[in-house]
Amino acid sequence: MSSNHRLLVKNAKQVVLICSNGEKYLSKHGLQNLCVVENGSVVIGSDGLIKAVGPAETIRAQYAGATFDKVIDATGMCVLPGLVDAHTHPVWAGDRVHEFAMKLAGATYMDVHRAGGGIHFTVEHTRAAAASDLLSSLSGRLVRMQRAGTTLVECKSGYGLELQTELKMLDVIEAARRALPINISLTYCGAHAVPKGKTVAEATQDILQVQLPRLKQRMSAGTLSVDNIDVFCEQGVFDLGSTRSILQAGRDMGLNINFHGDELHPMNSAQLGAELGALAISHLEEVTDEGIAAMAKAKTAAVLLPTTAYILRLPQPRARDMLEAGVIVALGSDFNPNAYCCSMPIVMHLACVNMRMSMPEALAAATINAAYALGRSHTHGSLEVNKHGDLLILNTTRWEHLIYQLGGHQELIRYVVIKGNVVYDNDKTMDL
Fold this sequence. Notes:
- By secondary structure, the protein is α/β, with parallel strands linked by helices.
- The protein is built from 17 helices and 16 strands.
- It has two domains: 123 residues, Urease, subunit C, domain 1, CATH 2.30.40; 292 residues, TIM Barrel.
């Protein structure tokens, strides 16, 4: 055993492992009893990976002669895995605060879209923005997410709708991935809307013949590393046939299928995703019973977005029906100009109140299951040996406070740790 380690977190009142047998996800009964160690400690090695986690006295004996770069005494505190945000659109210019007023006055998502707002408004501003400005605003948003406990986040392109802007967005996300400690899963979402002046068929051909081949070239050259492919499968956007051909082309390039489905209308997106072996489908406010059964069988994760249903006053996603059917349920913030929320603790709270999830279900959905939806549950999403040393230390004696206290994460989160390095220290003793 090497004598020097990066971090020891000792004597925590609770250490929430989530799971302890290498589970890739939790569903049904596995969600009822999360794995929690009372009075526990965690050791993170110099490689940033977890070396030991368990009862404090066992670890004290095991590491008696070891030295640590940093020791945190977590007496009276809780340790949790870093939160995973499985769905965000964080690269854009021009906010849509004016549209919030329209929505409050009763305009629907598609009313705003048809009036030239929504995605098209953001596309216009993002196309015109310099990459350096996009990187600067993205970095600020990611740091804010990190402060709210997110240590792994999925980031989509999709406000370009043509090759140059899509590449600009992907490059900006890649630059943030290299510069910031937060872990990023990168998603190409060129099929986020049909560009003005194009038909669905023309937009689909542009993606298949122009955008994806260029992406493949950049990935082969090692200048871009894309993880997932996304399509907005919806009436008036991309139909089932176009969605199928784009997702298949992405899958053939080695990308995980992770797309928007059954949000505003039942499109049978869930069945299509299950058939294509999709890793995850997001939204699902209008999913059918058949779609739920297909996803449960295919082990396709459902990424539910409580903020979207809340802000757009849509029917809530049927979380309970999905959970009871054995679907792997994950959560995302859907951070974007339409749903401006950086906080996974608030997302978990909304999931519990509006979607009737229990607190253990919501925490698993924002950790191990969200990591599964991004193909990362072997490295993230729980506190297990050899996984990344990404964790939160809460200034409270029970982990449930993170969900119970709506908006309370700003006071509750004392430390955020990524790969054994403290990336946020919320020391309230500095208040004057």
